Hints:
- The chain is α/β, with parallel strands linked by helices.
- Helices cover 50% and strands 24% of the residues.
- The chain has two domains: 43-156, Beta-Lactamase (2-Layer Sandwich); 180-300, STAS domain (Transcription Regulator spoIIAA, 2-Layer Sandwich), CATH 3.30.750.
- The chain has helices at residues 8-45, 65-71, 75-80, 85-89, 95-105, 156-184, 205-222, 239-254, 266-274, 288-300, and strands at 49-54, 59-63, 114-121, 127-139, 145-154, 188-191, 194-201, 226-234, 258-262, 283-285.
- Helix 7 runs parallel beside helix 8.
- The protein is rod-shaped, with a radius of gyration of 41 Å.
- The model has no long low-confidence stretch (mean pLDDT 83).
Amino acid sequence: MTSSPLPLTATQDEASSIAERIAQLEASMLPIRREIDRLKHLASLIPANIYIMDFKQLNAVYSNRELSALFDYTAEELRRMGTALVPTLVHPDDLTRYSAHLERLTQIEDGEVLKLDYRIRLRSGEYRWLRTFEQVFSRNPDRSVHQILGVGIDLTEERQAEVERAYLREELLHAQTAALQEIGTPLVPITSGVIAMPLIGSIDEQRAARILDVLLDGIAERRARMALLDVTGAKDVDARLAATILKVARAASLLGAEVVVTGIQPEMARILVQEGANLGQLKACATLQEGITLALSRAAG
């Protein structure tokens, strides 16, 4: 026994009802589509690199025009990279930090933002520095991370400027150090066989070694019999300065020269005694002028 076919009018009524429901659904979807299009257009106009990534697969779900322009890859090309996206674009030396960053993303709350600086590879093969701010965009039913939303800033010029500034600071420091060494250890010829070295400022280990080298070289070069070491302008009168004076005096005596220390203050005298200076061998004058007068009188005699 066969069933009777539905009347044509009933079939037409059902088709008309379905078409009406479809039209209603399309009409209800129209504002949503317009809103989606508006948001896409807005994202494409924002002067920042915006993207959405599938957290499990680490592939691009969405990337705006700015990001595509930076990478020199279209959004479709980025999507087609699939799971090869991260190994292809992230610098090999930054992959470990990137993995640690992903692990931290699994532990953050909604609305919390994590920052990471790393290098990304462009189509040309050039690497550029990118600073990203990422947060959870959506979660799976079990509350695990489904997608992440990120905003990236190109830091390449800023990084290069930092490197250049650091280089210039290092060069300036070297130049200043060299200048201070030259200015801080001047050797002044007084008369035949007599030289003077005024010590100004602080004396660290490096400068103490420089003082010894310059003075001994000057004694040997000028065949000096007397060297005046003036400490009037020295700062931080301490055991280091006293040790420097004693070392210079002993070394000069080995070259046949006498060191006369001028400008010693009471505090320096106490430190020299504490350091075990042989005051019988260490000649001292109250001022540099007195030391010069002594040197000239000996030269005349």
